[in-house]
Each structure stands twice: as structure tokens, then as C-alpha cells.
Aromatic ring-hydroxylating dioxygenase subunit alpha
Amino acid sequence: MLNAILPVEAYTSEQFFQLEQRHIFTEHWQCAGLIEDLIAPGDYLTAKVGLADILVVKGQDNQLSAYHNACRHRGTRLLDGKGKTGTRIVCPYHSWSYDLAGNLLGLPEHKRQFSQLDKSCYGLKPAKVGVWRGMIWVHAKPDAIELVDWFAPMAEQLAPYDIGSLIESPDDLVSQEINANWKIVVENYIDHYHLAHLHSGTLSMYDHKRAKFGFADHHFHFWEPLSADYQQDISTNAPLPLLMDKADPTLGAWVPMLFPGIGLAETESSWSVFHIVPLAVDKTRVNIRAKVKNTSSLAFMSQAAKSYAYWQRKVKAKSAKQGDKHPLGSGDFMQEDVYVCEQLQQAMKSPYFSFGPLAERSELPVYQHQQLVWQLIAPHWQT
Ligand SMILES: [Fe+2]
């Protein structure tokens, strides 16, 4: 029998949360944005990588560089959010300034205030940046494993799409707070068992029985084909223009979860990143950005019109009697997921709470993800 590895405290303890921030999120590659976010020299974005604060800037040579987002004088945060910084980065506190290569430039009243200062010792601390699958990735350590090596085990486990050729769909930009621990959100994402149950009316366009999934090193891979009725007339039924040939035998959805907490959903007609960001032990933000085929708006309108009747028939609320204001009556699979995640977090408050057994095939990934987390945290965890 397969039993959960992590104790309940892994989902409720502030101490456990802080250990994860330090030993999981600060120590692994994180997604910081899409390549479209940084176009011209001076464009920048900032990202939290666990406890570290990183900035990525496009240099005069059009190359990306990443630094710790802290002035070398008093550690003040240099840049916020994303935007344009021009040719230099200036600290708001005492106006220490840096060029886009991270070098410390002149200081106000430098000679008088710092008689012995060697400016070459006070450049911005480097971090590491890379681009993979149209996304900008950052790591707090400049000598971290190469991004391509980190994702090498997933090379054969993703959709055969050129992500760079797709265009962002701003309508699908979603940022949602979920009142649950980040691991509950991840475990729900990689749980095959619930698909045919919780989402019986909302994800029935895929054939869950034929899903293939597992872990490749740190990352979860998942693929499932279309359901027979959806596939039968896919040119009409697809809600958006298809990204693959309709006769391709691999037509379906690739839904990996990259460690730690970066889900992708690469379906027959859209691509999206589902970035799980822990905010507190019982609060998580999910940022979703989606891309679609680079084609005319007429093609999108025509596909939406053609497929309308199919979706009207196909999508059913889990529990219509609850009304469409209730997550289980909404007919929206994401709201169904948020509901069960928040319910579980609530349930864990009870001193009578305990986990039951995990399904041996369909929930094996949940067990394996717990194993990964436990390996990283157990050496530091004291009860
Ligand atoms: Fe789900």
C-alpha cells in the first residue's frame, strides 16, 4: 500500500515553509517570464527565487544578464516589477549606480566619502539566466547547473511545438490566489486519479484511461490523447486553431510539472504556463500565461463559432444543483481544483485529520513529489 510520506506539518508549519523557501525555491531554476517581456536594451524584469530577489536585464548587446536585485552598498532593492531602466540602474537610497553589465559606476561624492573604495569589488552580484521553451528562467547561483541539462530528462516528454512561434493570448492572463499550501496545488496538478471524477464534466475531451505519466528525474511528465468523440471531428470541435496536424497520432495534451512548481499545459490548440508561487504556508499564487497559434483573428472567430455547439453539449458542471456561483456548479475545471485544494487545507486544521492511502498507479506521482520534497527538507527538519 502506498502511504503519504510528508507529515501534515509539511502543509501547515511555518518552519517547514521557511525551509522549503531556503532549500527548494532558492536552490532551483525558476520561471521569471516569457521572452516577449524583454525586447529592447534596458528592458528588465524582477523575480523572487525563493528568498533571493533577482533582476534580469537586456544589455546593450541584446544579451540577457541576471543579478541579485540589491545595491552593494546597503542592500536596497534596485528595481521593481518590470519595465525599462535606460542605460543604468540607480539605487534609490544613496544613488549608487550600475551599468547593464553590473559594474559600479561613479558614486556621488565618491572621493570624499569613500577614500579607499575599489569600485571593481562592488559590481552587482551575478545570478544565472537562461531561455528554455520561450520562457526566461533564473537561478540565484551563477554556477548553477545549465538550464538545458536541468530539463534534459524532459526532452522527449513535451509537445513538438515551436513555442517561440506562438503568440501570447492576453485574454488568458490569470493570476489567482489559492488558500492552500503550494504542495497541495502541485499534488492536485499531478494527480491522475481525480481527472475522471472531479472533472468528469469539465475535462472529458481527453481520454484519461490512456494517459501516460511518470517522473523523469525531478520533473513530472504527462500525456493523454483526445477522447474519441472530440477527436472524431476535431477540425470542428477544437475551440481554437489546432497547433498540430489533425491526423497526428500524438494529438492530445502534454501536462508536465517542472520542479519546483512550474506546470505547463501544452494542448492540441493552446500552450500555457501555470506558475505556482508559494506566498505563505497556506497561501499560493498561481500565474497563468497562455499562447496560441499565430494566425488571423478571423481564424479564431471562425473556429470559436464552429466549435460552440460541441462545447455547449460537452461541458457539464460537477454538481449543477449547487448553482453556477459554487465552484462545483461552475463547469470550470480550475474552480473545481481550487475548491478541493482549499478544502484540504482547511481539513488539515483539525487535530483529527489524517491522510488515507494513495492510489498505487494514479497517485504514485503524488508520492514521488513528496519524496523529492522530503529528501531536500528532512536533513533540516526538527520536530
Ligand atoms: Fe484537477
